[in-house]
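In the previous chapter we treated chains in isolation. Here, by contrast, the input contains two separate entities that must be folded as one system, with a combined length of 663 residues.
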Amino acid sequence: MSVFEALRLAWQGLMGNRLRSGLTMLGILIGVGAVILLVAVGNGASVQVQAQVAALGSNIVYIYPSSTRAAGGVSQGFGSGTTLTQADVTSLNNQAQAPHIVTAIPVTQASGNMTWQNQNWFAQTTGSTADFPEVRAYTMATGSFFTPADVQSNSKVVVVGKTVVDSLFQGQDPVGQQIKINRQTFTVIGTFASKGSAALGNQDNVAVVPITTAWAYLTGGRGKNITQIIIEAPDPGSVTAAEQEATTILLNNHQVADPANPDFTMQSQQDILSATSSVTGTLTVLLGAIAAISLVVGGIGIMNIMLVTVTERTREIGIRKAIGARRRDILLQFLIESMVLSGLGGLLGIAVGWIVSAQISAIKIGSNALPPPVVSIPSVLLAFGVSVGIGLFFGIYPANRAAGLHPIEALRYE
Amino acid sequence: MAEARALITLSKVTKVYRIGDIEVQALRGLDLRIDEGEFVAIMGASGSGKSTLMNLIGCLDTPTTGSYVLDEIDVAELGDDELALIRNRRIGFVFQSFNLIPRSTALHNVEMPLIYAGDTTQREERAMLALDMVGLADRANHQPSELSGGQQQRVAIARALITEPAIVLADEPTGNLDSESSLEIMRLLARLNGEGRTIVLITHEPDIAAFASRVVRLRDGHIVRDQRQVPHEPEADDPIAELPSEAVR
């Protein structure tokens, strides 16, 4: 008997009891659909987070001062050190010493309330140099960024992000307007285009001033404090080399005796990227595993129904054997029947999982939507393969039982 | 008259069943020869071993001892798959309870043996031809549940004939039919015998056995009588035919 004949017989068998076949298929359908959907949701989260991390610039490294220890060894906490200096920035920008560092910029942070007319808004104010937009991958929406001359002359100019524009200026063009930050008057000279990320902090709620201006007017007597240095490598592949060069320079500049205990720490975007990837990867595996349980339950459902079918059709098996069906003909018939059942359920499950994946980001939970699910083709192929495999695995026992029936006893079965 | 070719030769056949610890001797050294073209009725009460004999002749089972040669093939030692092949090619079964595959059309039922034979040449045409032979060409696409008992049995006979088997083995073919359909089926079998087919009929009803040209009686696993007769249809007003068959014996 050919496989085509066996398929035809299996189809007849399944169509003979449509409701039961349909319900059994539903078990696999839900299992496969759930795998596809949940893996897609996990992938979607992963893709979104990675896009956000990439938006921060994937070829940059942050250098922070280590936490200082007061007398008696009490740690003062992360970022409390003041070991980074303008001299470090100058050394890092030296192409001879650090060929893999394109640019290094100093950053200082000052928090402050901003006011414009009768509006007020809170944003982190960052002091930096003219290279800030290039390193942090900001582009200008309107106006322009401040120049090295502004940095030289402590100009009281500020560039603001989209959130500040929307919140403080209610959508009006802020370029040329005077705002107050900590009661100091600044002129807005430009706005950044939106970076549109949310999960890793709002990249649009920023105000950037020349670092010298920040030191002079905003950081309040803390001197020329640099809270972090950001270095930019020419490409993501050179980040490690850039980190090594920076380490060498800083260890030398700071005359650190023990390289194992430096007075600074580094964190690259790739560190963040790999950390978040491993988190979202675990999430995807977890979701997939939960869904896989329902697939196994569906498989057991198939086995159950196939056993009932074999018992119910004992007489038919006897007839087929009497008119010349061999053991493997019967085995093939029932095996293909269970595989068609699970394979068809799998195909429908893929369709359902795909459609739901495409629709689910429209569903809002409160104000948050799920990240758009990304259906991965390997998960689709795997789910289909597994569903057919489940039909095979859970079909073997019932089919073998059918094939092993003795024709006389099967014929006598009522 | 030239010696007819032997189709079935059973010699010293025994069959022992074990039911729990008890051994049951269903056949005790039985010899039987059936020639090509014969119409043999095997009769006997329940427990006489006629079902066992029919299972052996039909290659559904193998004898415990003794030999069985069917159409020049010694089948006593064959394995399950080889027996399946013999059943497929050389034997056409007609059962008491019709035994059609439910939810399959008459046509599909008839072509079923060809599917297992792996024979794909003009399968549907040949199945239609066989249905036509039993007068059911117009019922080809009906399911068994849509056919009367007599029609179902005719489909079963068409199925038995499709592979051109050496023998047609009919096990109480009229047991589930009313007397009119019974007559119809027996006339069909008699006609097929007239066309040269070898038919082995198992029955316990004398007026069914009357259609055969030879009657073999079994009791306790032995042949107690083996006689040839002129085939005849029982007369309609035969008082025996009106009585329940159990009472006849």
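The longest strand of chain A covers residues 103-116. The radius of gyration of chain A is 33 Å. Compare these points with the single-chain example from earlier in the chapter.
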